[in-house]
Write a structure and sequence with these properties.
Structural class: mainly alpha
Order of helices and strands: HH
Helix content: 25-40%
Number of strands: 0
Radius of gyration: 14 Å
Shape: flat
Length: 71
């Protein structure tokens, strides 16, 4: 992803924690773009040529997170 660099994930999590949000999980999905599609470069210019689907297994991971954190 070139829109939000993965190096920022820990800073993002820390800022959320500092504001009282302790139930936070940040995961870097290597090989994906900002829309969680399989991507080579992560560049916006690449979006048009990609399949319109999330990386396999990622929706399940997101669903598990939501289910675990909304109990």
């Amino acid at each position: 992803d070139q829109e939000v660099p993965s190096a920022e994930s820990e800073n993002f999590k820390n800022r959320l924690n500092e504001s009282g949000n302790m139930r936070v999980s940040c995961n870097v999905v290597n090989g994906s773009n900002h829309y969680l599609q399989k991507s080579t470069t992560g560049a916006v210019e690449e979006y048009e040529s990609l399949e319109p689907e999330c990386i396999r297994g990622l929706v399940g991971r997101i669903a598990s997170f939501v289910l675990n954190y909304t109990k």
